[in-house]
Structures are given as structure tokens and as C-alpha cells.
Amino acid sequence: MADRFFSDWESLVSAVDAKATQILQRDVAPVAEDILKKHIKSDIYDVYTPKPNGWVNGTTYQRRHALEQAVTTIVQDKHTILVTSTATASPAVLSGWSFHNRYPGAFLKLLEVGNMGIWRGGFPRPAVTNTQNEIDTSQEIKSAIQNGIQREIGICIEI
Q: What is the pTM of this model?
């Protein structure tokens, strides 16, 4: 981009915005996804062990690790990405009980607050909050941004 010339301010801003979106998708998102996966494991799966024969129908819940496997990045606008899990709650196991909010991240939000409905003894599992806190201070994220800006725009910055 350093070798391109722009005849007006709007075309420069548009080009920089496009590069910023590429940097978010190519450089920052994979690092943020790894951080979320780590917190799903440590803050959700590692803090809870399913009780034998404790599920509604008398069986033991079998983990599918669907939250980790469904981590994805959604571009919300040219300067914002949402790193979340698209996994949803299991279908209702009791008549009349259902989890209707099936938008990306809804199940993570449910686990975050600990309001588990029929899952007795639910407790908050703050994977999302802990992920955001780590992203805010992560040297890996800062390095990804710096490397992306240097590659895509051709300037060195210090964050």
C-alpha cells in the first residue's frame, strides 16, 4: 500500500479501512480464537465434571466439546470482529423446556451468567469475560496487529 497514491482523502480512508479489516480477519482473529478456545476449556469444561446418572433421563451427560469446535469470527463492521462459538444448547430434554436464543454466542452467554434453567446448580463460568480481559492485555494480539499493519500498510508502529 505504501507504493500507491491516492488522489483524495476518501479513497485513502477507504483503502486503509479495507486493510484494517483484512488485518483483523487474517492476523488478529486467529489469535483471539485461540484465546477463546483456551478459556472455554479452562473456564467451562475444566471447572465442571458431569455427575454420573445426573442428567434428566438418568444418564450421564457426554461432552461433545462443541463449544471449542464451533469457535468462529464474525465481522460486525469494518473495525469490529466478534469472536464467539456458534454452538447451541442441546434440544430440550423435557417437554416445555427449551433454549430459544440460538444466535451466535447465546449459549456462551448463558454459561457466563450461570442462569441454567433446568440444569440445577448452575454457576457462572466467565469464559467470555476472561477472554475479553486477556485480549485487552495480550502481547500476542498487539504483535498480530503490528505485524499486520507492517505487512498490509507498510509502516512500523509501536502499541
A: 0.82
The secondary structure of residue 93, as a DSSP letter, is S
Tell me what percent of the residues of the chain surpass a pLDDT of 70.
82
Gap between the Cα atoms of 113 and 122, Å rounded: 9
In whole angstroms, how far apart are CA 108 and each of 2, 6, 9, 31, 111? 41, 44, 41, 19, 5
Residue 24 to residue 46: CA distance in whole angstroms: 30
Closest to 63 (Cα-Cα) out of 90, 97, 93, 35: 90
Please state the domain extents for the chain. 9-152
User: Can you say whether the dihedral through the CA atoms of 134, 137, 139, 142 is positive or negative?
Assistant: positive
- Number of residues that make up the chain: 159
Q: Are 124 and 109 in contact (CB under 8 A)?
A: no
